Structures are given as C-alpha cells and as structure tokens.
Amino acid sequence: MSAGVELDHITVRFGQFTAVDEATLDIKGGEFFSFLGPSGCGKTTILRTVSGFLDPSQGKVRIGGQDMAGFGPNKRPTALIFQNLALFPLMTVADNITYGLRVRGVDKAERMKKAGELLELIALPGQGQKLVSELSGGQRQRVAIARALAVQPKVLLLDEPLSALDLKLRQHMRNELRAIQKQVGITFIYITHDQGEALTMSDRIAVMSDGVIQQVSDGKTVYDEPDTAFVASFVGENNAFAGTVIKADKSGAVVETAFGRLRGRNPKGLKSGDKAIIFVRPESLKPGKHAADTTLASEVTSVAFEGNVTHVYLKGLGKKEIILTVGRHGGVKIPEQGAKTAIGYDADMGIVLPDGKMARE
Amino acid sequence: MSSRFLVFVIPLVVILVFWLMAKREQGQSHDPTRKGFFERNGTVLGLVFIGLVAFWTLFLVVLPYLYMAVESFHPKLVPAKRGGPEDVLTIAQYKSFFVEPSSGDWNTTHLWAFGYTIVISIIITALNFAISYPLAYYMAQAGTLQKVRLLMLALIVPYWVNEILRAFSLRLLLASKGLINQALMGIGITDGPIDFLGNNTGLFVGLSYAYLLIMVFPLYNAIESLDKNQIEAARDLGAPWWKIHRDVVIPYAKPGIASGCTMVFMLSAGSLAAPQFLGGPRTLWFTSIVYDFFFQAFNWPRGAAYAFILLAACIAFVMLMLRLFKVSLGETIR
User: Fold this and answer.
1) Do A103 and B240 touch (CB under 8 A)?
2) Residues of B in Cβ contact (< 8 Å) with A151
C-alpha cells in the first residue's frame, strides 16, 4: 500500500531564484518523514514538486520506483493536505471525504460506506451530513485527513496542517496523526517549521535552509549530533560561541572565544586555525566552576521561573544572551539576578562545528 | 378626483405611514445614548440629505413608474378628452396584447414577438455565459497580473464607443457586401454572400457583445474570491479539469452567475438598438413594438401596458430561475 519517494538531484528555480538546490533523498515506504526549516527554505516547494503541482527544473521524482515526470497531481498516488485544509465549503462532510471517489466514478452506496468507515477512523462517526462550517478546527483537520485517505494514496503529503490550531489541540493532533499513520501504514511526508512537531512525530527529519538539505537523520541525532551550525542553532535552543580552533585532536577541540577557551567534541575533524562555533545546549550548562576549559563567567541579567524548569539569562555577546536551564529537582542553587557567576558543562556536551550560517532568531 | 392625481398622493401617504411607524418604534425602545438623525448631522445638513434622497427616489424612480402604471390602465384619448367622462380605468390595453381589439382574433403577431424575444434572450444569455465564463475564470484564477490588466483594457475600451455606433459598425462588417462576406468569397469558402443579417447572426453577435461586460464582471468577482487551494485540492484528489469546474468553481460562483445571467437576460429582452439595426427583416423584437406604440402610434397607454407585461414576464422568469438554481435574490446583488 505504501510507496517510497526518491528525490534524485531535484533543483527548482523560479527565474533567477533557486528555491531548491540539488535535493537528493530516499524516503522509505511507510516512513513518517518531515521537512523542517524556516519559512522560505524550500520545503513547500519540495512538497509541491512531489505532489505534481510543480515540475522540477532538474532532477527526478520517483514514487514507488516510478518516474513521475509527466504525471499531473491528479494522476499521482499522492494526496495533499493543505495548510488551510481547502475543504469544500458547499459540500457536506461526507461529500468532502468521498469527493476523490466521486470523480473516479465510484457509486453512491459504495461512497457512503467508505465515508462511514473513514468517519469512524477519525472519531467523527455519524457526522457525515454536517456542513464543514459546523465543525470545530480540530474536526476539520480530521476531515481533511479523511478526505486525503479516501483515495487510498500511497503517500500522504502534509503542508503544515496544524499551524492554524491552538497549542493544546496541536499537541493532541500530533499524537493523533502519528496514530493514524501507524494504522494506515502509508508514507507520510510532513512539512513544518515547528521543530517540536518534527521531533515528536517523525521517523526521520530533513532540516532545510536556503533550498539546501542540511541534514537527514532521526530526531535524536538531529538534536544531539547536528551536522552544521544552522541545524545546531535551528533545532532547539542552543548557546553558540564563535572563535578559532587552537587545539584539536581525536578527543575534541578547544576554541578560543570571547568567553575564553572552550572545549567540546570535534565530530567534523576541525584542525587548529579553523574558524569554528562551539555549541552548548542550555540544559547542559550548570552553575558553578568546572574544568578550566569548560567554564565561563558572566553576569546574570534575569531569571525566569517556568514551573518545571528555570531559565537563567546571562550577558552574552551583543544582544544574544547565554541561556542556562535548570530542572526543578536538580538540587542546584540558582544564581541571582545581577550576580557575576561562573557556569560550565561536561566537555562532551559541547560540540565544535565549522563556522557557518546560523538560524535567525 | 382623477386617478392621475392620486399617483402623486399615494407615495406621500406611504412615506408618512412609514415615518409614523418609525417614530412609534423609537418611542417604544428608547435608547438614551442613541442620537437622532438631526442630532448627528445637524439640522441643515440633515434637511439637505433628506431632500436629496427624497427627490431622487420620488421624482426619478417612483413617480415615473407609477405614472406609467396608471397610464396603462387608461384608454387612449386625445388631449381634449383627458379627464372627461371617457377617461375611465380599464384593462383594455392589457387585453389587447392577447386579443386584437379591432378584429377580436388572437393577437398572434405580438404574442409571437413576445415569445420570440424571451426565447432569443435566453439563448443570448446562455451564449454570453459560455463566452464570459472562460474569460472570467482566466482573469480571476489563471492569468498573470499583467496579462489580466491587458485583457481587461481590451474588454473595456470598446465600450467607450456608443452602442448605436457599435451596432452599425457590426452591420457594416456583416452586410452582404461587408468585409466578412468579401473575405469569405475572396478565399473561396462561399460563392455568394451569406445573409448574416437576415439569418439573425448579426442579432446574436450584437446582443452577445453588447452585454459581455455585464456578464464578465459579476463572474470575475465571484470566481476571484475562490481560494486557489480549493481548485488544487480537487485536482489533487484526481478530478479532471471539467469536474473541477462542475463541482468546485461553478457552485462557488453561483451567485455571480445568477447575477450576470439575470442582468444580461433583462437587458437583452429590453434592448432596442441591436435588434433594430442588426435583426433580420422577419425579426420583430418586443421592445420595438413598445417603441412604436409610444412614438409612431402615440398610443402611450398601450405602450405602457406592453412594457409592463414584458417587465412582469422577465421578473417572473428570473424568479423562477433563481428558485430552480436555489439562489436567493440577496446573493445576486452582493
């Protein structure tokens, strides 16, 4: 039922502008795959290329091994869920869900049966005769999913479908989407700028920036082992200290920064003299002195208690502050506002990456 | 008291009744924060507003129609006898549409012209829709901004030309020795000239073109507000282009379609210039008959009666169509 999607050196240009540059990917059948990136990074362009609304300037899209060149969106085994859902306002819920079957010439009795099954799946049984306008946001969301699933696509494409919902509903729908994907077992390709959505739902994530795929990995790897400065700064909070590598070996590298010499892992094998950024996650930073090359000092500008965690903001370089996050039951003494304090981390919690473009805040 | 005088009194009485009702309503549900009309606008400006609106509605809209309506219920009389004992209320003028008063036979000429006018107007409306829908769809959804602007200009500029001039220039083109016949004979498609005016081609072309914009713009307005994603969603679900139009675009644009069709139908049925100049010799347009009663026979009462018959028939037809296609009248004037 499911099919893999291969992107083979896909490039999409709009005039002079290159929206997607040489994207090559192999999405496996039945996988929940996300494209994560800021707006304008080219993720929606990729989705429209897969669904057939856009032809790539170069490269090939293969679905289930078959080259899709020349197949329009109505001929591809894909179904797209739009950002604004694009439900048909003049049709009932059941007619919306079965529209794809209707244009295929499936008779009415069969369609109504299918509508009943799908309404069951999306937990809206017996609501087929309602108008779309009578449903709540979350219910519309589910109707859009049912409408796409009704045509039994091999690949379901989702274009930030949760962005219009409020926070609670969004978190609930994440679980629901994941459950539906497990149940129907087809490939889901999910577009989002929300790293929380990507991390919680996906088997694998492609992080994109400026039309280039930066990294393709599972969520944990993307978070813990970022390949580039962009990925490190875009996915989750991160503290960045830019500088020059002064010492490098297999166990790690030391970077000369504005906050002194800082040590971290060196997965990219940087050499002495390279421009580099060392990243340390807020939850990896702890108050108190550590080893000389994993300690820095600054002044506390503010403390924000958030219930389960407390964020401590320290003076950083320019406008960017250093963030330190302390869990509730760590038994750690939280520094006070205005105090000059030393903070540090375990050496393998720092990661040294080549200097590069960072995500904008 | 003459019934003609009554015409001027009735609107005043109606206005007075409404004004008293409004006053009563205001007295019952008194809201101290709500300011009266004159308090908001000042006495002078308020009087000017009321005066202008009253003048417009009474003298330019209500009274002329009322006068015509009353006229249609009177016999045709020479001026000296008006207001005399022969000037009585009668439905003879309406009856004369069905039965010729002089002979007592069915008035087949006028009945035929009436039916012909209605049927041709329906065809014109359908033809106009068929031409305008693709245009409007292209302008609203498919075209780039620049091309759409150019197209709009090309649509609008010809309408700067006077309607009669346009009708005559079409006649020049379509005449037996006109440009089109010359060209057709020149390249040898036909041997003799085709009688475009006699076979009513001219009538159809002229009337379709005359009201093109009146159809295009309501359609354009309706289709323009349709979310592009709806079209893409239908396409993504497997619909071929014609099913997208049948299921998504046309149902959405229905109020616009109803509005455009209503206006084109009404205007076609009531048009005078195009049928007179472009119709064939056997074509008798109903409005021409009305015109002749007014200006050739000087029979204003009968002309007025005929005009009201046409108006009533058109309104009835439009209402029936709106009911059939489940569109409310309010939607068509959005």
Assistant:
1) yes
2) 237-238
Contact state of A79 with B237 under an 8 Å Cβ cutoff: yes
The CATH code of the domain at B108-332 is: 1.10.3720.10
Segment B180-200 shows an average pLDDT of 82
Residue B71: both structure tokens together: 């006229």
Sign of CA dihedral A46, A48, A52, A58: negative
- The 10s digit of each residue's pLDDT in B79-105 is 777 777 777 888 888 998 998 888 888
Output phi, psi for A90, to 5 deg: -90, 0
Residue B333's pLDDT band (cuts 50, 70, 90): low
The total number of residues shown for chain B amounts to 334
> Residue B1 — very low, low, confident or very high, per pLDDT cuts 50/70/90?
very low
The yes/no answer on whether domain A5-224 falls in CATH 3.40.50.150 is: no
Contact (CB<8Å) B236/A79: yes
Confidence of residue A5 (pLDDT cuts 50, 70, 90): very high
Q: What is the mean pLDDT of residues A92-97?
A: 94
Asked if the ipTM is above 0.85, the reply is no
Instruction: Report the gap between the CA of A81 and the closest CA in chain B (Å).
Output: 8
Higher per-residue pLDDT: B276 or A113: A113
Tokens representing A122 are 């999306």
User: How many Å apart are CA A51 and CA A68, to the nearest integer?
Assistant: 9
Look at B237 and A147 and tell me if their CB atoms are within 8 Å: yes
Residues of chain A found within 8 Å of residue B222, distances taken between Cβ atoms: none
What's this model's pTM, rounded to 2 decimal places? Answer: 0.79
Q: Identify the H or E element spanning A156.
A: strand A155-159
Q: Which of B229, B234, B247 sits opposite A84 (nearest CB)?
A: B229
In CATH terms, the superfamily for domain A229-354 is Nucleic acid-binding proteins (2.40.50.140)
SS3 state of residue A305: strand
**A90·B232 Cβ contact <8 A:** no
Query: Which of A79, A86, A90 lies at the smallest CB-CB distance from B227?
Result: A86
Q: For chain A, give every residue range classified as CATH 2.40.50.140.
A: 229-354
Q: A8 - beta bridge partners?
A: A60
Start-end ranges of CATH 3.40.50.300 in chain A? Answer: 5-224
Q: Per-residue pLDDT tens for A322-355?
A: 999 988 766 778 888 888 889 999 988 999 999 9
Q: Could you tell me if A352 and A276 are in contact, meaning their C-beta atoms sit under 8 angstroms apart?
A: yes
Confidence class for position A291, pLDDT limits 50, 70, 90: confident
Q: At what angle do helices B300-324 and B108-137 cross, to 10 degrees?
A: 50
Task: List chain B domain ranges.
Answer: 3-68, 108-332
Mean pLDDT of A291-303: 90
| Dihedral Cα B67, B72, B78, B79, nearest 10 deg | -10
Q: Reduced to 3 states, what is the DSSP secondary structure of residue A277? A: strand
CB contact under 8 A, A80 and B236: yes
Query: Per-residue pLDDT for A218 more than 90?
Result: yes
How far is A73 from chain B, CA to nearest CA, in Å?
Answer: 5
Q: Say yes or no for a CB contact (<8 Å) between A99 and B237.
A: yes
pLDDT digits (tens, 9 = 90+) for A190-217: 999 998 899 999 999 999 999 999 999 9
